[in-house]
Structure formats: C-alpha cells, structure tokens
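can u do me a favor
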C-alpha cells in the first residue's frame, strides 16, 4: 500500500475515533499532506453553531468553521457538487471557502452529503506546487468525504445528547442543572486559586401582567427577546442559565461584586433599548431587576453549601431591587 493511501486511512481512523466534537475538529484540521483547511456548514436553523461552541469553548476552535443558511449563498453551483474536486485556486471562486487565506495555488473541495444533499464543504488549499492529497485517487477522496460527513454527524448527535436536559428549549439558554454544575466547578477553582466568584440574577419585571393581558405566547416572546439582549452583553468566559420562569443567572469567574456592576448596567441598558414585539403588532417596554452576590470560598468549605449560599444571596439582592421598584441592580452585602 503506497504512503499517500496509508496516510489517508490513518486520518480517517483518527476522525472516526474522535471522542468529542472538539477532538474531531482538531483531527480534521490536520489532513495528510497538510494545507490551509476550512469547513463550511449549512445551518439554516442555527442549531449547529451553539453545539459546536458549547463543545469547544474550553479548548477553542481548532478548525476554522463558517456557518451559512445554505451553500447556495456562497455560489449557486456548490449544492450540486457530488464528487471531490481538485484544481488551481482562484480567489474569485474559492475565497469564500477559505476566508482570510492568501498566496494559495491549489485547492481540494470535498462535499459532505447527507441523504443525497450537500450539507457542507471541506476545503484544503496549499501554496506549494503539489496539490492537496497528492497521489490519492478521486474515488478515495469521495470515501474520505463520506467518512468526514458520517463522523461529523455522529459528533453533533453526541453533542445534542450531552446538551439534552441542560438547555432551556424556549430561550436556548442553559438549564438550572447546568448552572449548578458550573457553579460547583467555579467554586472549586476559586478554592484552588484563592479567588472569588460572582453570580448575577436578572428577573423580568411584571412579566405576569403581560401573560395576563396578552397571553403566555406573548410572555414567551418577551423572555426570548430579553434573553437575547442579556446574552449580547455576556462575556464568552461567563456561564449563563435560565433558572426560573422569568429569571436568568450569570456566573462570573474570578470577579468580585463591584466588578460585576458594569455588566449589570449594560444589561439594564440593553433591555431598556427598545420595546419588545409580543406578537400581533403589540409592543411592550420591558425592564429587569438584578441581584448580585459574590463569595471567596475557603479551601475547607463544602462546595455545595457555598453554591447554595451564593445563589441565595443573589436572590435576596434581587428581591431588594424588586421592592425598590425594579429596573435596578442591588448587591448583596459581604
């Protein structure tokens, strides 16, 4: 068996044996022979991007990935690609498949198919004289494309299973189960590093009045929009979850309560930025109240007790903000 084929088969085995989406992306980023690699995936329902982000948030994204509503938005002929293609790189034709790459000479495009529909494109380009996957026949590249597609589907399905029960179906935020697990992790980290952890809880003011007047569908639209506005202000390093019918919690590692105030102010401003469309042409101004608490756990403290106390302190501060009229933030005393 000649060396290019051996290398291709070894790469396919690595893809099939990957134990996570992050590991799969790392393996896919190192095809035999090397080169600049980019993956384009059709994601019309915006489901895949959160799955990938959640699976790779700790290690980063080893392989550049672009999500598009449909492959035809890049070029009309791409959804009709049925076999691997290799040829000279032309920026006019291939720049969107390999964004940010320059000085390329040859490119290989492997279509990823599901049920006879092309759902992704795996592109490899090189600046050297030899083309990507040199010495490998097109039929074997088609087999590699099938391995890429099947193994990637399996990884996304695994990511869905892992997120099952950990995601709120209405807003797409993480669930209370996720929050408890993440808080325990951050408390443990704070104990090791002798640092602090903050918890911010934002609760929609007078949501029940919207439900009573306009119906629960309108209330759901309010929650979805408020969740999106809050999420737009949250750092990637923070953890967020919907913890009640109208409450959202954010965990801020290595952050004390005063340093959490700028985020609280941004959230208040984002929610105030404009009315929410509750459906049927009905617009409503919406506000939130925010409670903040922080702790600096000692190494000997019980983590669960620390988690429960931190959340209880943030809820108590939230209730003070509500009693003061809402649309404001309160910090729990040390």
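np, heres the sequence
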């Amino acid at each position: 068996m000649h060396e290019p084929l051996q290398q291709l088969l070894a790469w396919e085995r690595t893809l099939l044996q990957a134990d996570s989406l992050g590991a799969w992306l790392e393996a896919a980023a190192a095809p035999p022979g090397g080169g600049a690699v980019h993956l384009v995936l059709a994601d019309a329902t915006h489901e895949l991007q959160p799955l990938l982000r959640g699976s790779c948030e700790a290690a980063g994204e080893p392989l550049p990935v672009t999500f598009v509503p449909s492959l035809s938005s890049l070029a009309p002929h791409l959804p009709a690609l049925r076999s691997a293609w290799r040829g000279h790189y032309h920026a006019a034709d291939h720049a969107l498949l390999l964004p940010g790459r320059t000085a390329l000479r040859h490119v290989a495009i492997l279509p990823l198919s599901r049920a006879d529909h092309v759902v992704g494109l795996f592109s490899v380009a090189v600046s050297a004289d030899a083309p990507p996957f040199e010495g490998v026949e097109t039929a074997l590249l088609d087999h590699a494309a099938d391995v890429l597609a099947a193994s990637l589907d399996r990884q996304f399905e695994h990511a869905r299973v892992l997120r099952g029960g950990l995601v709120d179906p209405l807003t797409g935020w993480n669930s209370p189960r996720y929050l408890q697990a993440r808080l325990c992790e951050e408390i443990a980290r704070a104990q090791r590093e002798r640092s602090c952890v903050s918890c911010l809880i934002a609760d929609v003011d007078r949501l029940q009045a919207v439900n009573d007047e306009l119906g629960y569908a309108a209330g759901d639209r309010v929650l979805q929009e408020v969740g999106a506005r809050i999420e737009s202000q949250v750092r990637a390093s923070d953890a967020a979850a919907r913890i009640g019918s109208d409450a959202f919690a954010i965990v801020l590692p290595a952050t004390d309560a005063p340093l959490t105030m700028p985020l609280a102010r941004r959230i208040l401003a984002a929610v105030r930025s404009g009315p929410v469309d509750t459906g049927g042409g009905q617009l409503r101004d919406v506000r939130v109240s925010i409670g903040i608490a922080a702790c600096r756990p000692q190494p000997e403290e019980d983590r669960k007790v620390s988690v429960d106390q931190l959340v209880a302190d943030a809820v108590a501060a939230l209730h003070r903000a509500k009693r003061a009229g809402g649309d404001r933030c309160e910090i729990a005393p040390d």
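Residues 176-331 form a domain with the Alpha-Beta Plaits fold (CATH 3.30.70.270). hope that helps!!
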